[in-house]
Design goal:
The chain is mainly α. The protein is built from eleven helices and two strands, in the order ββααααααααααα. The termini are far apart. Keywords: Metal-binding, Zinc.
Amino acid sequence: MSNSTIPGSDGQLRCRWCAAAPEFQRYHDVEWGFPVDDDFRLFEKLSLESFQSGLSWRTILAKRENFRKAFKGFDYNKLARFGAADVERLLQDDGIVRHRGKIEAVLHNARVAKEISSEVGSLAAYLWQYEPNGSAIVTPQSASQSTESLALSKDLKKLGWKFLGPTTAYAFMQAMGLVNDHVEGCVTRLKAEQARSRFKRPT
């Protein structure tokens, strides 16, 4: 067993971080690192990464269903129509993180996402342009950002996106399968790689 893996509840080795909380193992095994092409799931993750700023992912994961309900399944077409009254309503929702700046940022970003989707065809097609090529892959979990995450955050910022730096962008890329950052020896690494090999990149 390497320093980067730890036995899970079934005795099989996994990325060490998934032992930090009981609910992390399932998230690690079935979500983290598996490719996603659903626009609303991608927007959800970008939004939740913003909400996580200054907090732990465990806090956000525990509230994720509440976030989904409050933010209409992260359908950015619906959120783009939210206004000041909706912000005030969301600030009263104790099931989510009640931070005015982050709530307003998600609603603003929904309008940007809608524009991107209209121009490119889908938010997924836009985001998957930033998938690293094979020669750019580094040792798993050895970096907190990459050339591609820097480019993605820079371009989104140019388009008006709020609360997304290169480190947050890289965490998003790890989670949504744009990179397979499961460590060597992790039981889920091969499963994620097989999913990525079968995945049809959105265009």
